[in-house]
Design goal:
homodimer, Arc Repressor Mutant, subunit A, six-stranded antiparallel beta sheet, two-stranded antiparallel ribbon, globular, DNA-binding
DNA sequence: ACCGTCGTTCCGTAAAGCGGAACGCACTGT
DNA sequence: ACAGTGCGTTCCGCTTTACGGAACGACGGT
C-alpha cells in the first residue's frame, strides 16, 4: 500500500486541523472523513474520530451517511472502506476532460518509439495527478505505479505546467518545498530559474528529485484560451536517469514535445 | 456523452424523490448533488436546485462546499463539474480490491487467445460496474466504451454473479426489469430459470439483451468465504453475436471459465 | 469467564443549515 | 445603447438538525 512510502505519522493524533473555511460544516467534515481513507484502506469510527478530533458518535453518523450514499462501503467487521461509486464518478470526471481519449493514441506511439513509460498528468491544487500511464510492455524494471499523485514542485510535469501558469507557480512557491531526495530543488530562487528555463526550452526535466534513480522529461499539452495557448496537462517520459537524461535525451525531448503538440492539436480539433 | 444513450427525461423536473433514510441530511443531499453530475457533465446551482427540489441557495452552498473539498470543480462560467479528486479516490477504491492487478494478466492472455474485448465487472447495488476492460488492439468494430455501468439483469456478468448470490438475485427481481432490446428477458420466471441454468453450467450468456448486435459470455471469479466459494466479480467476453454465440462458443466458454478460475486461484493465493 | 475495545444508539442543547428575497453580473434581443 | 432575463451568490431570521457525552451490546483476545 501507499502507506509504506509515507513518513511515519501518529495515527491517533489529530492530523487534520479541521479546516472550515466554508459553510456546511457537515459536508466539510464528510469530505475530511473521505480524506482519512486516502491514507488507510480500512477504518472504523473510533480511528476516524481520533484522526479528525470529532466525537465518536459524529464519526459514526458520517460513516453511515457516506455508506448509504455509496461513497463508502462496509467491510465485514463494521469498518469501512472507499466505495466503488467513487470509481464511477472518477471515471466520469476524467472521461469528460476529453483528454484521455485524445491522448491515448499519441501515448501509445510515444511508448513504442521510446520504449519507456509515458504519463499523462494534470494539476489538482499544488499536486500533479497522473490520469493515465502506459508502460513499456517488456520492461524488467517498472516505475512504482503506486504514485498517482506527486507534489508539483519536484516533477517535470508540475514544472512544465507551472511555467505556463503564473497562478500555479505562486501557489507552489507559497506552499513550500519538501525534500524527497538529495537532488530535490528546494530553493525558491533556483525554482524560479528552472521555470524560466522551462519556458524558453518548451520542456522540463526532473533529475531524481522525487524517486532516487528515476528521472523524467515533460512537455505541455495546451489549449487556446483567449488567443493564448494555456497548458492544461502534460506528457512525461519517466525512466532510470541514464535512459532519459543521457545520450538519448535529445530523442526523448523531441519525441515527447511532438507527441504533446499532436495531442494539443487533436484537442483543439475535438473541441466542439 | 453518455446522455445520448439515455431515454429523454425532463431535466427541470424533480427526478430525485429525496430519499432521506439516514441522519445527516446535508450529507445525504450532498451525495444527491453529486449524483446529478452522473447524468450531466456541467451543472449550475439553478438546475441542481430544480432537480433535487431544494432551494437555490442550498444548492449553491452545497456546490461551494463540495468544490472546496475537491469533489467538484468550477468551470469558467460559474458552473460546476466532477472534480479530479474523485478520480483519485476511485483509483484507490479499486486498487484496494486487489482485484484488478490480479486479473489483468489473465485478461490480457484471454484477449490474445480470443481476440475479443474482455471485461472485469463487479456489482454495485443492482448494477454491474466494469472495473477494467481490455480491447483487442486491431478491431475495426469496438464495443461502445461509454458503458461503464449496466443494469445487472440484462448482462451475462450480472447473471453469473446473481446465480451465486441469492441476496443479489432477489434485489434484482425486486428492482424490476427494463427492456432495452427485443431480446431482453423481462419475465421474472424466465429469469429465475436462467439463473438456475447458469448455476448448473458455471457460466452465463446474454444474447443482444442490452445492445443490439452485441452478446457476451461471463464466468465467475470467486473467493472462499465460510468454506464455500462466493462470487465477487466476473470476467466476460463481449463481441458481435456470431463471434461469441456461434461456432466459437465452446472455445469462448472454455477460455473465459479457465481465466476466471485462474484469477480466483491467484486471488486466494494473494490473500494475506 | 473476564475485560478491553469497538461500533452503535439515545438525548438535551445549541449551533448550523434551510428557504425566501435581494444583489450583481453577463448575455440577448430589440 | 438599453432594458430585460437568466444566472450564481449573499444576507438574515427561524427552525431544524447535527453535535457531544454517556450508556448499551457485541466481539475477541487473554
Amino acid at each position: 500500500m501507499t502507506v509504506l512510502s509515507l513518513p511515519p505519522l501518529d495515527l491517533d493524533a489529530a492530523v487534520a486541523p479541521a479546516e472550515d473555511d466554508s459553510p456546511l460544516r457537515s459536508v466539510s467534515t464528510a469530505v475530511a472523513v473521505l480524506d482519512c481513507f486516502a491514507e488507510e484502506a480500512e477504518l472504523g469510527a473510533t480511528r476516524v474520530a481520533a484522526r479528525l478530533g470529532i466525537a465518536k458518535s459524529t464519526a459514526c453518523r458520517m460513516l453511515a451517511a457516506l455508506a448509504t450514499g455509496g461513497l463508502l462501503e462496509r467491510t465485514g467487521s463494521g469498518r469501512y472502506r472507499l466505495g466503488l461509486r467513487l470509481f464511477e464518478y472518477g471515471q466520469l470526471a476524467v472521461d469528460r476532460l476529453m483528454l484521455r481519449d485524445v491522448a491515448l493514441p499519441a501515448m501509445g506511439e510515444l511508448r513504442e518509439l521510446l520504449r519507456e513509460t509515458i504519463q499523462l498528468g494534470v494539476v489538482v491544487g499544488t499536486d500533479v495527478l497522473y490520469v493515465e500511464r502506459t508502460e513499456a510492455a517488456s520492461m524488467n524494471v517498472r516505475f512504482r505505479s503506486e504514485h498517482r499523485r506527486n507534489p508539483a514542485h519536484s516533477s517535470s510535469t508540475g514544472r512544465v505546467l507551472a511555467a505556463g501558469d503564473p497562478a500555479l507557480a505562486t501557489a507552489i512557491l507559497e506552499r513550500g518545498f519538501v525534500r524527497y531526495t538529495p537532488f530535490t530543488v528546494v530553493d525558491p530562487q533556483r525554482y524560479r530559474q528552472i521555470l524560466a528555463t522551462t519556458r524558453e526550452q518548451g520542456y522540463a526535466t526532473s533529475r531524481e528529485e522525487f524517486e532516487p534513480g528515476w528521472s523524467s522529461i515533460a512537455a505541455p499539452i495546451t489549449m487556446m484560451r483567449g488567443g493564448r495557448p494555456h497548458p492544461v496537462a502534460a506528457l512525461s517520459v519517466v525512466a532510470p536517469t541514464s535512459r532519459v537524461l543521457g545520450h538519448r535525451k535529445p530523442a526523448v525531448v523531441q519525441g515527447v514535445r511532438r507527441a504533446a503538440a499532436r495531442v494539443s492539436a487533436d484537442l483543439e480539433r475535438a473541441r466542439s
